[in-house]
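Appendix B. One record, verbatim.
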Amino acid sequence: MFKPPIHSARANATARLSQRRGFGRRLLKAVSLAALLSAALPITAARAGVPSLSNLFVFGDSLSDSGNAGPLTGFAYTPAPYVGNRASNGPVAVEYLWQTFNPGNNSFKPSLVGGTGATNYSIIGATTGLKNNLQVSTPPSALNAIFADKGSNWQLNQFKTAYPTSSSFNPETSLFLLWLFPNDVFYCLNTLTNATSGACLSVGTSAGADSTATNLP
């Protein structure tokens, strides 16, 4: 039986090892390039549709509420360790989104605070319709009455009062963000009824502004 010379086997092994090392180096470069691109994409993608952001209109629940619970409750809710009357121990996602476009600009704030930039209509416990889960929370408390019917419909009415026509803001530099639904499930579990009334939050799109709807966490 023919046996290849030992030096040929070693040469082949050395060649295969060299090929593997070359592939490894190419793979490392590809991964490094992908990492750099992925790090750059979020801001690039965000700015692609909206080159600048003068208004951020947000309709949502505790995931987006940056402090509307404060004015409603005499700034007694939410309790520690939450801060700023949020259901969070720091800024919520939409606040970071605003800062992405407007670094150091703190004008974006809860709608009930009032003033310029008070365009975050989100409220803790809001459903996609008329109701708010905190109005049926157990055990019953003063929060039940305070948050009664503070759903997305309440938020939409607030927006329509503040901005009666699309000429009240610049659609080209405005973004509408909707982030709702979990409280519909919680409300249904608490009441065994359907919380969704089908309130329409399409005013931003019909006005020609950009809009986005996020998925659940």
